[in-house]
C-alpha cells in the first residue's frame, strides 16, 4: 500500500488486498484498545475517583439493593445510587465488564467481585457475576468499567490467522472474493422458494431469492423499518430446508437474541452460544449451556461428579498411604473422564444444530474450534468492525451480510484509528466494490408515516423506499385515548429556537448542551402526554451526551414524564417510538454544527419516529450546513412550524 494512505482515504471502489488489510488493521486495533483502556479506570490514567466518575468510567456511591441467584447459577446484583433516584451520567452499557469495589478504596485496590452489566435503568444497574461477594455489600460501593481485552485479543488472533493464509480453512474460496481477487458467482437458475412467512413483500422475496442463488457473497441492504431481520430469518429457514449448516451472528448480543426469538417458533434445531448472563431471559432455553445440561453425556458427567464427591469423602477419612494413593489415582482418571464427557456433551449439541447463533467475537470461542459452516450470516453488519466480521467469516465458505451503511457505523473510541479507517465496515467496502451485482435493497418500510420516510428516502436512498399502506398515513391521534390537538396533529413539526436567546453551552467535559432547548423538548413531550399520548410512546433523542443528562434531570421533576425515553441518537439506533423529539442543541453565531452534519446520524434520528417527528433547533445555526438546510426546508414545506417563544 502507498505509505500514509489509510483505508478510509482510498477512493471508494479501490481494492484493498488481504495484506494491506492485515498491515493497516494491526496498529489500529492496538490504538483502539489503548483508547478504551484509557477511558477505563484500570489503567491508572485517571488521577482521582471524582474525575473517573466525570469521565463516566466509574459510578461512585452505590448501594446493593438486591442479590439473587438466577441465570444458570449466575448471581444478579442490583445497585442504586445512595444519593438520589437517578444514577449519575456514565458510559456503562449492557455487557460491559465491570469490577465492584468499596466506594472510597484506592484506585488500584483489589475488587470485591467482577461481573458483566446485565441491565441498566436510569435509577439502577444490575451486574451478573459468578459469585456473590462474601462481605462488603452492606457498605457504600463503586463500579468501575474495564476495557474488554478479550475482544481485542480475539481480533488480533483473527488477523494473525488471516495473515498466515487461509488456503486450508473453510473460507479458502471466500477470502479472494471478499478482497476483490475473484468475482462473486451466483447460480444461473432463478431460485424459486415457498416462503414460510406468507406476508413477505416483493422486495423481500426478491432479495431472498438472490441470497439463495449466491454462491459466495450476498449483501442485504435494509433501510430503516424495511424488515431486514424478518428477511434474514426467512433466509435462515430456507437454508435450513436445503440442509445447510448455518452460523448466524451479529455485533451485539441483543441482535443475536432477536434472531433466536424469531426462529424458535419454527422449531429449528438451533443453539445460542454465549455467556448466559449476556442473553435475554427468553432465549435461555436455547442456550448452549442449557442444552448441554439436558444431554446424555452431561448426565454421565454428572454421575461421575457424584462418584468423585464420594471418593473425596473417603480420601479425607483414609488413614494409610496406599489407600490414599489408590483413591487419588482413581480421582484423576474420573476427572479426565468427566472433562471428556463435558466436552462431548458440548460437541453433541453443536453437531446436532442446524443453526448456531453467537456474537461475532463469540464465534472465536474454543467450543466452536474445528466446526465449519455452509453459510455465515451476519446481521447488523454495517455496525460491526470488519475485523470482527472476519472472526465469523473464517468459519464458512459462503456469506450473507445484512445491514445499512447509510445508518451509523460502529462506535470508535480512538479518533486516530477512526481517521485511519478502523470504522470502515466490510459491508460498505463490499457495497463499493461490487454494488448491485451482489446486493439487494429492501424497499417497503413498515414503520413511518410517509412524510417522515420521504425525506430519508429522497436524501439517502434515491427515492426508492415506499411506505406500506398499514403505516403510510398513520397519525398520533389515531392511537387509543389520544385526542386530536395542535400537538398531536402534525406528522412533521419544526420548533425553532432562533431568536429565543437559547445559546448552546459546554459542560466540564466539553460536551455541548442547550438548556433552553431542553426545556422546549420537555414542554412538547408534556403537551403530547396531556393530549393522551402514553409517555412510553415518546422518545427524546439528541446527538450530545450532556444534553441527555440535562433532559433526564428535567424529566425527573415531572412524574407523568417518567416513562419518556431519553437517549443519544447513537444509543437509539435500531429502536422506534410513536413520537420522536429531536433536540439538535447547536445554537451559535458561527453556525457551527459539529457532527450534526453526518447524514447517517440525522438519518437514524428522523427514522426512529413512527407517527410524529418533531425537530427542535436553531434554524439559523443549522442552516449553515447544506444537508441540514435541506432537512429544515423539508420540514417547513411538509410540516408545521412553531417558534419556541409560542410554546414557552
Ligand atoms: N412483509 C411484512 N409485512 C408486514 N410487516 C412486516 C413485513 N416485514 C417486516 N414487517 C414488520 O416491520 C417491522 C420491522 O421489521 P424488522 O424488525 O424485521 O426490521 P429491521 O429492518 O430489522 O428493523 P430496523 O429498521 O430496526 O433495522 C416489524 O414490526 C415487522 O413485523
From TrEMBL:
InterPro entries reported in the protein's UniProt record: AAA+_ATPase (IPR003593), Coronavir_polyprotein_1ab (IPR050534), DNA2/NAM7-like_C (IPR041679), DNA2/NAM7_AAA_11 (IPR041677), Helicase_ATP-bd (IPR014001), P-loop_NTPase (IPR027417), SF1_C_Upf1 (IPR047187), SMUBP-2/Hcs1-like (IPR004483)
UniProt keyword list: ATP-binding, Coiled coil, Cytoplasm, Helicase, Hydrolase, mRNA processing, mRNA splicing, Nucleotide-binding, Nucleus, Spliceosome
Coiled coil: 301-337
Keyword flag Cytoplasm: yes
Pfam families according to UniProt: AAA_11, AAA_12, SMUBP-2_HCS1_1B
Top-level taxon of the source organism: Eukaryota
Residues of the Helicase ATP-binding domain: 196-447
SUPFAM superfamilies: P-loop containing nucleoside triphosphate hydrolases
Compartments reported by the entry: Cytoplasm; Nucleus
Domain AAA+ ATPase: 214-436
UniProt-listed Enzyme Commission number(s): 3.6.4.12
SMART domains documented for this protein: AAA (SM00382), DEXDc (SM00487)
Catalytic activity: ATP + H2O = ADP + phosphate + H(+)
Family note: Belongs to the DNA2/NAM7 helicase family.
Protein name listed in UniProt: DNA helicase
Organism field: Rehmannia glutinosa
Amino acid at each position: 500500500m502507498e505509505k500514509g494512505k489509510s483505508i478510509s482515504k482510498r477512493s471508494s471502489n479501490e481494492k484493498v488486498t488481504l495484506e494491506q488489510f492485515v498491515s493497516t488493521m494491526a496498529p489500529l486495533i492496538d490504538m483502539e484498545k489503548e483508547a478504551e483502556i484509557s477511558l477505563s479506570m484500570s489503567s491508572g490514567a485517571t488521577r482521582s475517583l471524582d474525575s473517573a466518575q466525570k469521565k463516566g468510567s466509574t459510578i461512585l456511591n452505590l448501594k446493593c439493593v438486591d442479590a439473587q441467584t438466577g441465570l444458570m447459577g449466575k448471581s444478579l446484583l442490583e445497585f442504586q445510587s445512595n444519593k438520589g433516584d437517578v444514577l449519575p451520567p456514565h458510559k456503562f452499557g449492557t455487557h460491559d465488564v465491570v469490577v465492584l469495589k468499596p466506594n472510597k478504596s484506592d484506585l488500584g485496590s483489589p475488587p470485591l467481585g467482577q461481573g458483566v452489566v446485565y441491565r441498566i435503568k436510569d435509577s439502577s444497574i444490575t451486574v451478573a457475576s459468578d459469585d456473590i461477594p462474601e462481605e462488603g455489600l452492606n457498605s457504600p460501593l463503586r463500579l468501575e468499567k474495564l476495557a474488554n481485552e478479550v475482544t481485542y485479543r480475539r481480533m488480533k488472533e483473527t488477523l494473525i490467522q488471516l495473515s498466515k493464509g487461509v488456503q486450508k480453512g473453510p473460507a479458502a474460496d471466500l477470502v479472494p472474493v471478499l478482497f476483490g481477487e475473484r468475482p462473486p458467482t451466483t447460480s444461473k437458475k432463478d431460485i424459486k422458494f415457498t416462503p414460510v412467512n406468507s406476508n413477505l413483500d416483493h422486495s423481500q422475496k426478491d432479495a431472498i431469492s438472490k441470497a439463495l442463488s449466491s454462491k459466495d457473497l450476498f449483501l442485504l441492504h435494509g433501510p430503516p423499518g424495511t424488515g431486514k431481520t424478518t428477511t434474514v430469518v426467512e433466509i435462515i429457514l430456507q437454508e435450513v430446508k436445503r440442509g445447510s449448516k448455518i452460523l448466524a451472528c451479529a455485533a451485539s448480543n441483543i441482535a443475536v437474541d432477536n434472531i433466536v426469538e424469531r426462529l424458535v417458533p419454527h422449531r429449528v434445531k438451533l443453539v445460542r452460544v454465549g455467556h448466559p448472563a449476556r442473553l435475554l431471559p427468553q432465549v435461555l432455553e436455547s442456550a448452549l449451556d442449557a442444552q448441554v445440561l439436558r444431554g446424555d453425556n452431561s448426565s454421565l458427567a454428572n454421575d461421575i461428579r457424584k462418584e468423585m464427591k464420594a471418593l473425596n469423602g473417603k480420601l479425607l477419612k483414609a488413614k494409610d498411604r496406599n489407600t490414599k494413593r489408590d483413591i487419588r489415582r482413581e480421582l484423576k482418571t474420573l476427572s479426565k473422564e468427566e472433562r471428556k464427557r463435558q466436552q462431548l456433551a458440548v460437541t453433541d449439541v453443536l453437531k446436532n444444530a442446524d443453526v448456531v447463533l453467537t456474537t461475532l467475537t463469540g464465534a472465536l470461542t474454543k467450543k466452536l474450534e474445528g466446526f465449519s459452516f455452509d453459510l455465515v450470516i451476519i446481521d447488523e453488519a454495517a455496525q460491526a468492525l470488519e475485523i470482527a466480521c472476519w472472526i465469523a467469516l473464517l468459519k464458512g465458505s459462503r456469506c450473507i451480510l445484512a445491514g445499512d451503511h447509510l445508518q451509523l457505523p460502529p462506535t470508535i473510541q480512538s479518533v486516530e484509528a477512526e481517521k485511519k479507517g478502523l470504522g470502515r465496515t466490510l459491508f460498505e467496502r463490499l457495497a463499493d466494490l461490487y454494488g448491485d451485482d451482489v446486493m439487494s435493497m429492501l424497499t417497503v418500510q413498515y414503520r413511518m408515516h410517509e412524510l417522515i420516510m420521504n425525506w430519508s428516502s429522497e436524501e439517502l436512498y434515491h427515492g426508492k423506499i415506499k411506505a406500506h399502506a398499514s403505516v403510510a398515513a398513520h397519525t398520533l391521534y389515531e392511537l387509543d385515548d389520544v385526542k386530536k390537538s395542535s400537538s398531536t396533529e402534525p406528522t412533521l413539526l419544526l420548533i425553532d429556537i432562533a431568536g429565543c436567546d437559547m445559546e448552546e453551552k459546554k459542560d466540564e467535559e466539553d460536551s455541548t448542551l442547550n438548556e433552553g432547548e431542553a426545556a422546549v423538548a420537555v414542554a412538547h413531550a408534556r403537551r403530547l402526554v396531556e393530549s393522551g399520548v402514553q409517555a412510553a410512546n415518546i422518545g427524546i433523542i439528541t446527538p450530545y451526551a450532556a444534553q441527555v443528562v440535562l433532559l433526564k434531570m428535567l424529566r425527573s421533576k415531572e412524574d407523568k414524564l417518567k416513562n419518556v425515553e431519553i437517549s443519544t441518537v447513537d444509543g437509539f439506533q435500531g429502536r422506534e417510538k410513536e413520537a420522536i423529539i429531536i433536540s439538535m442543541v447547536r445554537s451559535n453565531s458561527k453556525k457551527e454544527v459539529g457532527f450534526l452534519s453526518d447524514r447517517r446520524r440525522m438519518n437514524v434520528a428522523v427514522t426512529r419516529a413512527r407517527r410524529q417527528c418533531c425537530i427542535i433547533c436553531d434554524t439559523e445555526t443549522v442552516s449553515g450546513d447544506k444537508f441540514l438546510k435541506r432537512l429544515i426546508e423539508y420540514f417547513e414545506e411538509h410540516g408545521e412550524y412553531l417558534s419556541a417563544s409560542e410554546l414557552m
